[in-house]
Amino acid sequence: MGVKLMKPLVSVIVPVYNVEEYLPECLDSILSQTLRKIEIIAVDDGSTDNSGSILDDYARKDKRLKVIHKENEGVSEARNEALKHVRGRFVGFVDSDDWIDREMYEVMYRMAADKKMDIVMCGYVREFAGHSRVKNMGIKDGTVIKGKDGCRQFLRKMIGPAAGEIPVTESLDMHGVIWNKLYDARLLKDIAFCSLKEIGSCEDLLFNLYAFNNAESIMFIDMPYYHYRKTSRVSVTGRYRPNLVEQRKRLIDLIHDFLCQNGYAPVFYEALNNRICLGVMGLGLNIIAKDNKAGCIKKVGQMREMLSEEYIANAFSKFDITELPLHWRVFYRFAKNKNGMGFYIMVKAIKLLINIVR
What we know:
CATH architecture of the largest domain: Alpha-Beta Complex
Strand content: 15-25%
Order of helices and strands: EHEHEHEEHEEEHEHHEHHHHHHHH
């Protein structure tokens, strides 16, 4: 029997594209939430597998699921379309190859509503093939941040590390994801996701900068309610993207424009500078991707060209590597000196270690 349509407390946005293998687990985990007054807005972004049919089958059984079918444009455009249909007081996001614990939105909604929080965040689990790993967010359970200044300081951590903070590449986008957060819907008015065709990645970070800029209260719950499936993303993130350097430059420009337009202090620009330097790891991994058909010498040249980009070279001229562990000092020294061969060898070694850890 279908569930009677009701005014939702939480709207959950799910962009969907060719995930028939994982989609039922994702939908089951949302529809079985202990918080019953929810709506799920699933946008089928032109899937060519059975994802669209799966969504329609689920929608016939549970009226809380609204399905929108559209031509393929990308995840940002799918989320933007869903935002037009939100009816809930709060908004959450779930990726269609992930899943969530049954009590996630019950707990987060209660905290947001009872304590009058604009944004509530929780921990998450990285799900690998055969094992799981809880992500250490580095925030104490029950932490509450109030006031514009406090919310801006958290926003700064999303941009990058500042002086005295250990710059860890792996944690660069840990706070900037959207799917472990519940937002007051009022914060999201007039905010849209930037197309990945324009910036390549980190569309959720840009979205969060504007959302957190509007916020006046944030709360963190140290419970890993969200399950982020790493195995399904390996093939996607491992593809060679020839325009990634240009797209990354566009992303940096947009973050810089955001800081200028909203009157942020110099420490925010320092954090952005450090993000640029830490980001060369991902740019290097892109160059050595298997489907980059260039030979070794050509890839070394691509490394050198990337490190010689004006915005990257300028960032490294201010990047302090003295407090880093030895191996990272060596890695970033190669980058700082635009040493394409040394950087290429280090990136290959790091890629090998990543595969071993997985």
